[in-house]
Amino acid sequence: MLFAPHYARPVTRLCGPRASAIREKPCPLSEVVSTLAPGEEFAMLDLAGGWAWGYRRADHHVGYVPEVDLA
To answer: Confidence band (pLDDT; 50, 70, 90) for 54?
Structure first.
């Protein structure tokens, strides 16, 4: 069970012109859990330290994407 004192509405962002890895942690060396294709939708829930946290709309894989990779 996950307790959340509030809920964030996702903000849809598109992957830029190149594919981007969705990572387990906000670190370039972290494990890749999925990949965003160019133009694919990412539902962003949080943005901090240059990393967007959210999920891939197509299959709901959750993770971190570098902010610069999102349009």
So the answer is: very high
Cβ neighbours for 17, distance < 8 A, ≥ 6 positions apart: 38
Contact 55, 41 (CB under 8 A): no
3-state class of 50 per DSSP?
A: coil
pTM: 0.88
Closest CA to 37 of 23, 51, 21: 21
Q: Which residues, in sequence order, are CB contacts of 7 under 8 Å at separation 6+?
A: none
Answer whether 63's CB lies under 8 Å from 8's CB: no
